[in-house]
Amino acid sequence: MKFLGYERQDGSVGIRNKILIISVDECCEGIARAIAGTDDSVVVLTNAYTCMLGGNEETFHQMAAVGQNPNVSGVLVLAMGCGSIQTSRIADPIAATGRSAAQLVCEKEGGTRKTVEAGRKIVRAMSDAARREKRREFPMSRLVIGVKCGGSDTSSGIASNPSVGAAVDKLIDMGAVCIGGELFELQGCEKILRGRAVSEQVADKIERLIFNEKMRWSVAGTELETMSIGNCVGGLTTIEEKSMGALHKMGCRPIEDILQINKSAVERPQRPGFYLSEASMLCGGAGINFAALGAHLLLWTTGAAGFNHGIVPVIRISGNKDLINEDIDVDASGIMDGSSNTGQVSDLIIEQIKAVADGQPTRIEGIGDSAMTLYQKDQRVEALLQLE
Amino acid sequence: MKYVRFIKMDEKDNVASALENARQGDVALIFNQESRETARVSVMEPIPYGNKIALSPIGEGDNIIKYGQNVGCCTRRIKEGGLVHVHNVKSRLAELAPSFQKEVMRRLKLTEKEADA
Lengths: 388, 117
Hints:
By secondary structure, chain A is α/β, with parallel strands linked by helices. Chain A has helices at about 30-35, 55-65, 85-95, 105-110, 110-130, 155-175, 190-195, 200-215, 230-235, 240-245, 285-290, 335, 340-360, 380-385, and strands at about 1-5, 15, 20-25, 40-45, 70-80, 100-105, 135-140, 145-150, 175-180, 255-260, 275, 295-300, 315-320, 330. Chain A starts with a strand and ends with a helix.
């Protein structure tokens, strides 16, 4: 099976040609939006935390890594000029991949209006260059696909997650890379995951990172929600049951590694196969985590929610026939009424992946994207919890 | 009496999930993931869509097996055909707050009396 993609200078293959504007500090976000205008192939990523350096390394690594995502064709990095974060810190590693990575500093340009004007010129040139690129045929093994759930209900663990799991196994067998995350929701699955790890070392790393994620969310004296009332009324009884259902979207092939996203680096898959990662359970942040890990697209299992992303197209799969609406790309509800099974639905998912990789928009691509949240682990909390 | 569909996710499971609402006196048709009927169980109490039925009697302290895995501990004997949920099962990792458990039971119209049965 093959798809039509754009070859990049670093050897990766993109399925979209996005122009990314990165505002390295929150103050130039408005300038970035003014430059982007209404063109949905131009997307804005803003560091909304701070313009300071210390403790924000994870955010810097992610911003650069998102700029290196295969779906990104050109990047403009913006700064106000008064903050500590230099545009070159983000632009240089992106330029090293052969992408055009321009930089603008508002103070140097002579103000906001002039920066908007200069930025529009740069983005227009990048868009023109992107439009001239032609798609070529590549094998499915070149794809990197993230799997994530959100708005889970009973049908997720029965219909959509097992179907995605079956599709993931088929993709791995084709030589592709698939990546899961949401470590908090894998509590109770450690033994199974250890058994799937390719080595003792990877098994230990998986267990350590799940433990760390559990510690971050389980601080005495603070509220913790492992299950929602909706989860429970819908028939899920324990966190173990919810976790096992979630695990089903990750297939059953060996786990090559668990990719860390932290203050030192964003780890990337080094060979084909299935990977776990520190991609967040929170959807907006997970979208950016997966983009930073190099994912081309996401498989997202849900009831009926419409999670969408500006850089990494999202294929939504639902098995809840009472909730399915026009946002859902793959209908898995046949599993619930006996008219279909996981094998058949997984074939539909693979067909959809190929179509979307070829350039066909998903059901809501370009309409109402979710915020591209730059989530990072708070280094102060990490230190207090003594997490390694 | 009517026939209602349930799905059993793994051969080793002692529970199956309701694919439609089941009432007392209904007959549960237990399907596997390949949509093949593998067993029939008499439904002993209302089991709402998405909830679990006991495929055999489950004793206090026994494991609840779904997906072939241990997903909880039985806290109160469950008869074959009974509802398996927060009123007779607890997590081994993170117990639900009592107020949370009460709210779930209220919404599912599980009274204390039924829960004790």
